[in-house]
Amino acid sequence: MIYAGSCHCGNIAFEVEGEFSEAIDCNCSLCRRRGGLLGFVPREKLQLTVPEENLSTYTFNSHAIKHRFCGKCGIAPFGEAVAPNGVPMASINLRCIPAIDLASLKVTPFDGLSR
């Protein structure tokens, strides 16, 4: 299925192809504060519908993940990284996709704080 998502103000908008019945709730220092519920797809399944210049980027710790956010409203709709197997991946903040029923997701805690 293809979903449309965005930040709050629409400065960052995207389409993502995937089936989202589960989400990860990470407790790392960033995710704990941001409060996202993450779904993962290969990076090619995520398509921006706005210019890439609209994205702001934050990295921390090992700088392996590009946390993408809107410089206008502050919402972080997705991140980009390379999986251990070498495949480029995107972590989608499922809270940024209005069509997803968040209450129906199986949420799995992930201990990112200890990594």
Secondary-structure map:
Elements: E1 2-6, E2 13-17, E3 22-26, H1 29-34, E4 38-42, E5 46-48, E6 55-58, E7 66-70, E8 78-82, E9 88-93, E10 106-110
Parallel strand pairs: 3-10
Antiparallel strand pairs: 1-2, 2-5, 4-9, 6-7, 7-8, 8-9
Q: Which terms summarize this structure?
A:
1 helix, three-stranded antiparallel beta sheet, 115 residues, single chain, five-stranded antiparallel beta sheet, mainly beta
Task: Describe the model.
- With 115 residues, this protein is mainly β.
- Helix content is 5%, strand content 42%.
- It contains one helix and ten strands; from the N terminus they run E-E-E-H-E-E-E-E-E-E-E.
- It has one helix at 29-34, and strands spanning 2-6, 13-17, 22-26, 38-42, 46-48, 55-58, 66-70, 78-82, 88-93, 106-110.
- The protein has a five-stranded antiparallel sheet, with no helix packed on it.
- Strand 7 (66-70) and strand 8 form a beta hairpin.
- It is globular, with a radius of gyration of 13 Å.
- The mean pLDDT is 96.
